[in-house]
Amino acid sequence: MRRAGPAPGHRRRAVREHAAEEYLVAEKPDYFGGIVRVFDQHCAPGWMRLEDALRTNAPTTWDPDTQVSLFDNLDPAFVGDFWAGMFSMSTWTARVVASSVDFTGTRRFLDVGGGGTPYGIVLCQQNPELRATVYDLPQACEFARGKITEAGLGDRIEVVEGDFFVDAALPGGHDTILLSMILHDWAEPECRAILDKCWRALPPGGRLMISELLVDDTKDGPVDAALMSIHMLVETFGRNYTESEYTRWLTDTGFDKIHTIRFEALSANGVVIGTKA
């Protein structure tokens, strides 16, 4: 007689316990607890005021009357969870991007607004000749240094503190620049200003990559991109943009050979790539 396997309830409990062990234990590499706390303590209260955001076209998770942006005067108790949450989400996406985009010609990689530099870590691990730079606000760079040390990549990943709206120029000497989940934070004029600084920082033939949840041209889907666009209304003065919008902005800035590589990942569904003419 064949011995019966575990009951369905036991299997489900085992799956839950495994998931909790892998994603909710802080010491594990794929720890996801930070983003859970961010959504619970920071995002959810803003969503409860979604009607206010729609009526005023202003964020509800912070006060625009007292702060310049979401990243201004962050609560120290919130900072750790915020950057940890962004790192965990972006690490999953970085793995997909690394397998979807050809980086064999890239030698110097700049991650603008790169937080804990998940892209730099993943790409350096997979491309031995690659060197990376993460450029972000001071509190993000402090978090990034810890992650770089953990990965043993201190000799290949540089950390540069800065503000892309305040600094006259981005760090130079890179052949590829990445903007991952950056432009959705801002309205079109600010996005165009960021793209212009990226163009000026690249050498001829350098690539700019925009990794985002791209909204359809009809702006009614896909569901995850449309929901993220609403979330950007609650969080910022930005939204999620379409492939056509990014293509037009890149063309206006001076990029050519513009194309999009589609994929499915946690925080992006494609990357729009332009080459400096």
Record the SSE blueprint.
Layout: H1 8-23, H2 33-47, H3 50-56, H4 76-100, E1 108-112, H5 118-126, E2 131-136, H6 138-151, E3 157-161, E4 176-180, H7 188-201, E5 207-212, H8 223-235, H9 243-253, E6 255-262, E7 270-276
Parallel strand pairs: 1-2, 1-4, 2-3, 4-5
Antiparallel strand pairs: 5-7, 6-7
Helix pairs in contact: 2-4, 4-5
What does this structure look like?
By secondary structure, this protein is α/β, with parallel strands linked by helices. It contains 9 helices and 7 strands. A 7-stranded mixed β-sheet has the order 3-2-1-4-5-7-6, with helices on both faces. The model has no long low-confidence stretch (mean pLDDT 90).
- Classify the helix fraction into a percent range: 40-55%
Topology as a string of helices (H) and strands (E): HHHHEHEHEEHEHHEE
* Distinct helical segment count: 9
Largest sheet: 7 strands, mixed
The helix/strand class is alpha/beta
Question: What's the quaternary structure here?
Answer: single chain
Instruction: Detail the poorly predicted runs.
Output: none
Average residue-wise pLDDT: 90
Number of strands: 7
Give a brief description.
The chain has 277 residues and is of the alpha/beta class. It has helices at residues 8-23, 33-47, 50-56, 76-100, 118-126, 138-151, 188-201, 223-235, 243-253; strands at 108-112, 131-136, 157-161, 176-180, 207-212, 255-262, 270-276.
